[in-house]
């Protein structure tokens, strides 16, 4: 049985609502543009929250647009720059699923088609409304016979299509949830990378903060090994806003607290601490998911370097209290998570790695004792792994081995590497 992926366009495939953006283009020189923008946005939000019918919203917005074909050309150029980041990096998924990954939207083909077709989405798998134009190219309405122009349009369309397979819906609005309500789809995933609507998320089967999360949950091919929204980044104390912004923008699940709360000990993956904040040694010893600590000051008297080393936790700190380190430290933390870099670490060998290209990167942190690398390479040899490149550096009691391999391999290799004697932490990266 085939799996079909029914994907919304506005605020899902793209970061924005296209008709709202078209209004900003077409009404740029209109004396009442701000008032009209607000009316259009209100129509959008009321429909997305299920407070007015979709047709009422669509008709209201189209009448206010005052747009023509030249405005649509500008809109398409704008939307191509506004594709949601998690969709943008997973273009390969659409190539592999070009027959079953569909765009179904209450938007319009005139701007949707040129934006999504570069992502290997077939024109025949794009279902959306179409504009009506006068002889001068002005938008004067839309095809009212299209089921997607009406309330419950996505439900009506799927009933007409009679797809034979499991259907998964991904979207941000009420019209997407209606698919779940109808019983036509297997699961509804509320997409919240760009906007989160409580009226939608509280009814979803799963909240997906990114397309990476959707692919991960469903064990589908994806551009990154693990969704960063699943990695808890705890920021403690009076930390500059720029540092918080950097880690949020990178996609981590960020929480800002005045003090370290014990309830986060077992789940925290990144920890950024303001100068003067200390972490209890017992808590640190129990933080099994913690991968890196950033300290905006000298960490020496506040964090046990010994425990961090024993647990394979990479520490970046700011011994000289430089102003730039409010940006530098969180970026080093993100670079370690994203690429495996340990440059300027307090307790790890300093390693700057090349960017990953069509490979999987295996990070093996181990005790610096004889024979570990021999065991690692025996695993690769016994499994006939094609190694692209390999890096090893040691510092004191820590050994850090990084191996880039071709993507075709038996996943049992990962289990074998984790079981090697003196292994502290093992992680796989790909993006």
Automatic annotation (TrEMBL):
Q: What is its EC number?
A: 3.1.3.3
Q: Which residues form a coiled coil?
A: none
The protein's required cofactor(s) are namely: Mg(2+)
ACT domain sequence ranges: 361-431
Pathway assignment reads: Amino-acid biosynthesis; L-serine biosynthesis; L-serine from 3-phospho-D-glycerate: step 3/3
Listed GO biological process terms = L-serine biosynthetic process
So what does this thing catalyse? O-phospho-L-serine + H2O = L-serine + phosphate; O-phospho-D-serine + H2O = D-serine + phosphate
User: What are the recorded GO MF terms, alphabetically?
Assistant: L-phosphoserine phosphatase activity; magnesium ion binding
Q: Which CDD domains match?
A: ACT_3PGDH
Please report the name of this protein according to its UniProt entry: phosphoserine phosphatase
């Amino acid at each position: 049985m085939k799996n079909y992926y029914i994907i919304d366009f506005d605020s899902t495939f793209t970061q924005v609502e296209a008709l709202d953006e078209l209004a900003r283009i077409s009404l740029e020189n209109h004396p009442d543009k701000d008032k009209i923008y607000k009316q259009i946005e209100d129509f959008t939000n009321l429909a997305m929250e299920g407070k007015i019918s979709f047709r009422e919203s669509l008709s209201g917005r189209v009448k206010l647009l005052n747009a023509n074909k030249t405005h649509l050309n500008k809109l398409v150029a704008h939307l191509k720059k506004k594709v949601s980041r998690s969709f943008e990096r997973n273009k390969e998924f659409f190539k592999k699923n070009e027959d079953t990954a569909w765009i179904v939207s209450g938007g319009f083909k005139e701007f949707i088609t040129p934006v999504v077709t570069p992502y290997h989405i077939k024109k025949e798998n794009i279902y959306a409304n179409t504009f009506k134009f006068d002889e001068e190219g002005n938008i004067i309405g839309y095809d009212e016979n299209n089921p997607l122009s009406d309330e419950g349009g996505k439900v009506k369309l799927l009933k007409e299509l009679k797809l034979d397979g499991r259907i998964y819906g991904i979207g941000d609005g009420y019209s997407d949830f209606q698919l779940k309500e109808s019983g036509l789809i297997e699961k509804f995933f509320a997409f919240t990378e760009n906007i989160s609507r409580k009226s939608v998320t509280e009814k979803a089967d799963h909240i997906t903060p990114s397309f990476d999360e959707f692919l991960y949950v469903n064990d589908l091919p994806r551009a990154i090994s693990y969704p960063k929204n699943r990695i808890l980044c705890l920021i403690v104390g009076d930390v500059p806003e720029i540092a918080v912004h950097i880690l949020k923008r990178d996609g981590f699940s960020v929480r800002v607290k005045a003090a370290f709360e014990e309830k986060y000990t077992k789940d925290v993956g990144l920890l950024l601490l303001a100068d003067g904040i200390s972490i209890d040694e017992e808590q640190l010893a129990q933080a099994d998911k913690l991968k890196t600590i950033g300290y905006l000051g000298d960490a020496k008297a506040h964090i046990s370097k010994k425990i961090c080393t024993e647990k394979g936790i990479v520490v970046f700190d700011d011994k000289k209290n430089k102003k730039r380190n409010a940006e530098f430290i969180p970026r080093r933390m993100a670079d370690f998570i994203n690429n495996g870099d340990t440059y300027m670490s307090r307790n790890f060998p300093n390693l700057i790695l090349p960017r990953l290209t069509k490979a999987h990167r295996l990070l093996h942190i181990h005790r610096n004792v004889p024979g570990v690398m021999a065991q690692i390479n025996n695993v690769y040899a016994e499994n006939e792994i094609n190694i692209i490149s390999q890096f090893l550096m040691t510092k004191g009691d820590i050994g850090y081995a990084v191996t880039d391999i071709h993507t075709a391999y038996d996943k049992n290799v990962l289990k074998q590497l984790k079981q090697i004697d003196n292994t502290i932490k093992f992680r796989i990266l790909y993006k």
